[in-house]
């Protein structure tokens, strides 16, 4: 399959020259870099550190004078070039490197035209720009092997609890459709949900190692294929199943209303969550219990004991 082609556009006003090699290495994972342009006022001493890197890495500098004090002329030049490249239709995607939220609308426009947009910026990059991209990479993460963690600025990360909850929902959705949840699919869906999600932000270099940290999920290997599944507490499930059977049995031939059964179970097992066992609805869980059937009685769902 042909490799995808990308245009790399860098905002020199908002990105340090120390990131250039990691930027090129990271983008090369996605495809071929056919455009390499960087924008700034090259008459300014502010960009002196970039000049050697441009020649070394064959990056084309685009001169943009700062005509008005306090205005960022670089933004306009980058936006115009990006649209020109878009209309030539000879790239599959763009990589916009900046820590400035002013490019948020540009990113949205490129995506509306069917182009993939990879954003890169420092930890200080505002949320709107991050979320607008298909994928956003924090530049400090690309230097993780070179800089001590204590020296790096830390941005508010997506909480691990939120990530685990999202993964559990994905697995349950797939289970309800009788599908396995492949590790690759989970990774792709996390990036779609949180474009700035990156396991390197949490000190890992592999998604599988990161997921092993969660108590509610487990990795299942089938040869070279790895899937993600819910980690069940078998002992607790057996206790709950037995309790459900005893309650329904005692209710007799008329059975027990499902809402009443649910209240009794939640009262006894305070930490009981049906999602921990792969179900999105309580009635689905009850149907999985041996010797119990769930049937409609008028407008009411009832659980009955069957031998």
Automatic annotation (TrEMBL):
GO molecular function, one term: RNA nuclease activity
InterPro entries: LOTUS-like, NYN, OST-HTH/LOTUS_dom
Domain HTH OST-type: 159-234, 236-307
CDD domains referenced in this protein's UniProt entry, alphabetically: LabA_like_C, PIN_LabA-like_N_1
PROSITE patterns given in the database record: HTH_OST (PS51644)
Highest rank taxon of the organism: Bacteria
PANTHER family (UniProt xref): HTH OST-TYPE DOMAIN-CONTAINING PROTEIN (PTHR35811:SF1), SLR1870 PROTEIN (PTHR35811)
Protein name according to UniProt: NYN domain-containing protein
């Amino acid at each position: 399959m042909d490799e995808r082609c990308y245009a790399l556009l860098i905002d020199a006003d908002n990105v340090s020259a120390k990131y250039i090699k990691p930027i090129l290495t990271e983008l090369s994972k996605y495809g071929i870099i056919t455009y390499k342009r960087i924008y700034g006022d090259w008459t300014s001493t502010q960009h002196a550190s970039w000049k050697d890197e441009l020649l070394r890495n064959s990056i084309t500098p685009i001169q943009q004078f700062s005509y008005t004090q306090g205005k960022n002329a670089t933004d306009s030049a980058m936006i115009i070039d990006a649209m020109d490249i878009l209309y030539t239709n000879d790239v599959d995607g763009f990589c916009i490197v900046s820590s400035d939220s002013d490019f948020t609308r540009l990113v949205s426009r490129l995506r509306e035209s069917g182009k993939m947009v990879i954003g890169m910026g420092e930890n200080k990059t505002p949320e709107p720009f991050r979320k607008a991209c298909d994928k956003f990479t924090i530049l400090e993460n690309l230097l993780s092997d070179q800089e001590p963690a204590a020296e790096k600025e830390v941005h508010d990360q997506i909480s691990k609890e939120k990530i685990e909850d999202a993964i559990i929902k994905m697995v349950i959705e797939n289970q309800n459709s009788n599908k396995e949840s492949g590790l690759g699919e989970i990774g792709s869906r996390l990036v779609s949900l949180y474009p700035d999600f990156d396991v390197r932000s949490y000190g890992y270099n592999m998604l599988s190692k990161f997921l092993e940290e969660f108590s509610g999920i487990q990795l299942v290997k089938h040869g070279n294929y790895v899937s993600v599944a819910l980690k069940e507490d078998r002992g607790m499930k057996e206790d709950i199943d037995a309790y459900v059977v005893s309650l329904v049995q005692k209710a007799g031939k008329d059975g027990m209303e499902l809402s009443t059964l649910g209240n009794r179970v939640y009262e006894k097992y305070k930490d009981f969550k049906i999602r921990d066992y792969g179900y999105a609805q309580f009635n689905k869980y009850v149907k999985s219990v041996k010797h119990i059937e769930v049937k409609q009685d008028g407008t009411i769902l009832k659980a009955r004991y069957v031998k």
